[in-house]
Amino acid sequence: MKSYFQYTMSVAIVAASFAAATQTAIAGEVAYVPLGSDNKLVIVDIKSDKVTGAISGLQAVHGLAKTPDGKFLIAGSYEGREPSAKKIAKPTGVSADEHAAHHAKPPKGAIKPGSEISTLSVVKVADGSIVRRIDVPGAVHHVAVSPNGRFAIVTHPNEDKVSAVELKSYKVVANIATGSLPNYAVFSPDGSQVYVSNAGNNTISAIDVNKWFVRWNAVVGESPEHVVLSKDGNTLYTNNIDDATVSVLDVTKQEVVKTLSIGGSPLHGIDLSDDGGTLFVASLGGNKLVAVDLASGKSRNVMLKPEPYHLKVIRGAGKVYVSSADKPKVWVIDAKSLKAIGEINIGGKGHQIVQSSGS
């Protein structure tokens, strides 16, 4: 598939003036870890489990996703501002037209007058430059990109809605009210639907991507947050932070078919093993990582203190990265034995972790 991203040299020059990138050229797989209020994300070499660089200039970056071709990262800011707030000044040597092209304006009506806005940044992986900044209607918590790379979905918990951004035009093309406190989003494998967890009213919303409306809602556990979808797209797993359970939602039936007891409220990160047979859940309140065998229902755990937070199964590497909500580190966990095999000092609080390739 042809990439939606084609950039001129002038845009690259503009981008370089907006962000200080310290990315090191890396051969092989890396993971990107947003550091929230540290206004940057760090780059971790997956083979060595070491930080090899960083990309700065990303204000309050929490949500992060990548385009399917792996060439761009889509980073969301969780810090809102007034639409009238001072804009970034035009750099010396850059024409007014080039500067205007760098900042995508939302279509008329996409952002209501007086409402809070924040920034979605498009980051070029090759050099760490920010090639686009897009205004979106509300602070961004998490980000998902469609399988074809056409759309980014960003959640706005403070606004009770999500935004759809077209990554070809860099425009906000839809604002969809899902439910109270929308938290996390994931696309179906064919990209026709996107599922959103609503922590404020205990539901999952299924959004039709062609017409941008909520097709259905399903009731799950108490305060659903992070979600992960099975490879076949039929089963959605969502952690319920207030009752320390995971709801197993059959999206074809639009109903919960099983509830897994994890314990240690609140829960946080969730992901599936490479083969889809094991569910990993971070129990922040219980200071443990739990692995549930989905065939037998049996679980194992490893104690991780303090406060295991976001997690990511590193595809093809046999390990799981788990950040801490309290310490500036990521634990490296062997996916089979569930033993901690290392720690990575990331210098801040790690949020939505992304691998350079794989799901």
What are the salient characteristics of this protein?
four-stranded antiparallel sheet, 29 strands, mainly beta, five-stranded mixed sheet, single chain, Neuraminidase, 359 residues, disordered N terminus
Stretches with pLDDT under 50, minimum 5 residues: 1-27, 87-111
Q: Please report the number of helical segments.
A: 2
Task: Please state roughly what percent of the residues sit in beta strands, choosing from under 5%, 5-15%, 15-25%, 25-35%, 35-45% or over 45%.
Answer: over 45%
What kind of sheet is the major sheet? 5 strands, mixed
Neighbour order of strands in the largest sheet = 4-5-7-8-6
CA distance, first residue to last residue: 17 Å
The percent range for helix content is under 10%
Walk me through this protein's architecture:
With 359 residues, this protein is mostly beta strands. The chain has a domain at 262-359: 6 Propeller (Neuraminidase). Helix content is 5%, strand content 47%. It is built from two helices and 29 strands. The chain has helices at residues 9-18, 96-102; strands at residues 30-34, 40-45, 50-56, 61-66, 72-77, 103-104, 118-124, 130-136, 143-145, 151-156, 161-166, 171-177, 182-187, 193-198, 203-208, 213-219, 224-229, 235-240, 245-250, 255-261, 267-272, 278-283, 288-293, 299-303, 308-314, 319-324, 329-334, 340-345, 354-355. A hairpin with a 5-residue loop joins strand 27 (329-334) and strand 28. The radius of gyration is 19 Å and the shape is globular.
